[in-house]
Write a structure and sequence with these properties.
This protein is 54% helix and 14% strand. By secondary structure, the protein is α+β, with helices and mostly antiparallel strands. Helix 12 runs antiparallel to helix 13 and helix 17 runs antiparallel to helix 18. The structure holds flavin-adenine dinucleotide (FAD).
Length: 527
């Protein structure tokens, strides 16, 4: 026997989770797709899930993450080139998303359920690497904003929606500046009229993800006030540097400068925020769906690990304390998935009242839950969870991003406050959806009864309302999730959610009260 064999017999290491059927095994997703009107997309979803769960795709995800993008500002003769050099695996993944129309399906084929099917594809394709989904989501979201400008729409939408990685185009967004990201009114980038209805931009943007996009929606100060512009990558658009980021490390997020970059006005001068809000609403939907996807991948890894790893003489998956953690994580992921796809249906149905209000509420809450969820799932793998060779470290590093992007927690909570007073149809539509679950669980009924009291507290002095905003948004969000689960999920899942989130659950994951069917929930979540 060789010396190494005496010291390195590999025992009790959990199986690697790859070559799985990511759609077929995800009952919460498959059922939600059917329920929300996307049943016709099952074949595409199955194909997408098989590829996304394959060893090949997962290796591309790891490689794109390991070989981070590099910025090349100049060629060897000193001419500016402003290109980002990505690993071929990044292109493999991004091409896969574009060819599956994840950036465009509802715009190409706007049949009922198209937003639902697209959301499910987005969820599945996020599995190997979430960073790649950023330009996919931005392109999907830019289209509705561009539609208000028929000439630009005619010129760009055919390319932005093409399922062709070489000949199609991708859209990004550049709003955030050094002095303010949430408060875009503080933008200093200037748009100077250049004649013929065109403008030239002068200024900077502090964050601009995937600066290799073909076009960008940019906010800048025109003579008539803050306005939205379409800017093409090219002369006058310079990439200063790439951010060294906590997560989504496969994705280049850059700082850019505009030196007289040609720009076309989108919407009216002075109406920049109102114009770009359509893009923002769609990317917020993707923040929910992307966070749900991260949770599902984390649950799948945690359950798979617990099934094939033993401690103290028994597989972890048979040990009650671990079952409580896994079940609690699985319930959270299912609630996020159900909410994401229900929201997507509101986009299919152009149900504006529900769509705007519910997207903000659920963006706040699902993104807020993503990071503690990722931490707990990582801990299920013990020390292996902390090591970069596995997927958990990446999932954790990626988890906070959706919470920051497109409205950080406070900003979203304040947006919901604003919507309460300025969009009077939003809250009633939201509550009507929650009320559909009434009678399904006594804890949900009690929660629904208490909501008006919570909401009434927002009616007073603005400072007090802002102080309470997060709390109320959280209460609204769990009502929405509980209502969906009570109506549509297996009784064990709905019961655990109501017990853990509206009843006597504790603060950390793994504190579901006694009587919950943890084994049943974990069996449902098996990858
Ligand atoms: C990886 C990554 C990629 C990004 N890509 C892009 C991109 O492609 N394009 C783009 O335009 N931007 C992008 N961003 C920027 C992102 O949208 C902003 O960081 C975000 O909007 C917050 O803006 P800020 O960083 O200026 O923070 P600030 O606006 O300064 O906010 C800081 C904190 O203050 C809170 N806050 C703000 N206002 C209030 C208030 N009134 N009351 C209470 N609290 C408040 C916020 O919630 C936040 O917690 C990206 C960011 C990251 C991390």
């Amino acid at each position: 026997m060789r010396t190494t064999e005496r010291t390195h017999e590999v025992l009790n290491q959990a199986a690697v989770l790859e070559d799985t059927d990511a759609f077929g095994a995800d009952l919460a997703l498959a059922e939600a797709v059917q329920r929300e009107g996307g049943g016709w997309g099952e074949d595409r979803l199955r194909d997408c899930g098989l590829v996304a769960g394959s060893a090949e795709a997962l290796e591309h995800g790891r490689r794109a993450e390991r070989n981070e993008p590099r910025l090349l500002t100049h060629d060897r003769h000193g001419r500016r080139v402003d290109v980002v050099d990505y690993d071929p695996s990044w292109h493999w993944l991004l091409r896969g998303a574009v060819e599956r129309e994840i950036h465009s399906m509802p715009w190409r084929d706007p049949r009922p359920g198209a937003h639902v099917v697209r959301a499910a594809l987005m969820y599945l394709w996020s599995g190997p690497n979430a960073g790649v989904m950023c330009p996919v989501s931005m392109t999907y979201s830019a289209v509705p904003a561009l539609r208000c400008e028929p000439e630009l729409a005619e010129r760009w939408i055919p390319r932005l929606t093409m399922p062709d990685y070489e000949h199609g185009a991708l859209a990004g967004m550049a709003m955030t500046e050094k002095q303010g990201g949430s408060d875009v009114r503080a933008n200093t980038t200037r748009a100077e009229p250049a004649g013929g209805g065109e403008y030239e931009l002068v200024g900077h943007k502090w964050f601009c993800s995937h600066p290799m996009c073909d076009v960008f929606l940019v906010l800048a100060q025109a003579p008539g006030g803050l306005s939205c512009f379409l800017v093409q990558r090219g002369p006058g658009f310079e990439i200063q540097r790439l951010k060294d980021k906590l997560g989504t490390r496969s994705l280049a997020s850059s700082e850019v400068e505009f030196h007289g970059a040609p720009a076309s006005l989108v919407g009216e001068e002075g109406r920049g925020v109102a114009t770009i809000i359509e893009m923002v609403t769609h990317t917020r939907l993707d923040c929910v769906v992307g966070s749900a996807a991260g949770m599902r991948r984390a649950v799948a890894e945690a359950v798979s690990h617990a099934r094939t790893r033993s401690a103290f003489g028994a597989p972890l998956i048979e040990q009650p304390a671990m079952v409580n953690v896994l079940a609690d994580l699985a319930v959270e992921a299912e609630a996020a998935t159900a909410a994401g796809l229900r929201l997507a249906r509101a986009y299919d149905e152009a149900d504006d009242a529900l769509r705007r209000f519910a997207t903000a509420v659920m963006k706040y809450w699902v993104c807020k839950r993503a990071t503690p969820h990722a931490v707990e799932a990582l801990e299920c793998l013990g020390g292996n969870g902390f090591v970069e060779e596995g997927p958990m470290a990446r999932l954790l590093r990626d988890a906070p991003l959706n919470g920051i992007w497109e409205g950080s927690g406070n900003v979203i909570a304040l947006d919901v406050l604003r919507a309460l007073s300025r969009e009077p149809e939003g809250l009633p539509a939201f509550l009507a959806e929650c009320e559909l679950g009434r009678g399904g669980d006594r804890r949900l009924d009690a929660h629904l009864d208490a909501l008006p009291v919570e909401l009434a507290e927002l009616a007073g002095e603005p400072g007090a309302a802002q102080w309470r905003a997060r709390r109320v948004v959280e209460q609204l969000a769990v009502a929405f999730q509980a209502s969906l689960l009570v109506r549509h999920a297996p009784a064990a899942v709905a019961d655990a959610f109501c017990a853990g989130r509206l009843g006597e659950g504790g603060r950390a994951f793994g504190t579901l009260p006694a009587g919950v069917d943890g084994q049943g929930i974990v069996a449902r979540a098996l990858p």
